[in-house]
Amino acid sequence: MAKAAVLATPQERAIETGRQVALVAGASLLVALCARVTIPLMPLTLVPLTMQNFGVLLAGLLLGSRRGFAALMLYLIEGAAGLPVFNPTGPGGIAQLLGPTGGFLMIYPFVAFLAGYIFERGIKSFARAAIAGILAEISLFVGGLAWLYLFTHSLAKAAYLGLYWFLAAEVIKVMFAAAIASRWRRSRNETAAWQ
């Protein structure tokens, strides 16, 4: 397979590069669309319940570590540039990156990388995807809560604002992302077996 890549014509390489760019940009768009599904939880917390995390996990699981990381870096660049990709309850742009939800946003590329990295190794099963999603979510909340701690100067307050309200929803998101990713891999393997 590596030999075929070396022998590829410039046109084939250009097509493959275009495909990779489209996948990364598409994943960035997926996360932006997921961010539109938002349930504000004020006055309980300034952190809204969104589908963004689901999009981030799905990008990492489906694209793998490197492309997942690239997609979420692109997402952050788009948001920092003022494009309306972040959840609509925040101020948008740099202000949203530096606001209470900034820790969650800034760690997204690493969350996608971790989910993809774990899922890439070994059998692409639902269990492996779920474990990858859970570990990626733990890293997400570590980053998000550390950022909230800077605002509140209290771990208890940070956990109240950024953790307790979200646990049940995050478990559901992880399970759905794992189910989609494992089914996608299985269908790709079945398609390859038929060819």
From TrEMBL:
Family: Belongs to the BioY family.
Protein name: Biotin transporter
GO cellular component: a single term: plasma membrane
UniProt-annotated location(s): Cell membrane
Matching Pfam families: BioY (PF02632)
Transmembrane segments: 21-39, 45-62, 69-86, 98-119, 126-150, 162-181
GO molecular function: biotin transmembrane transporter activity
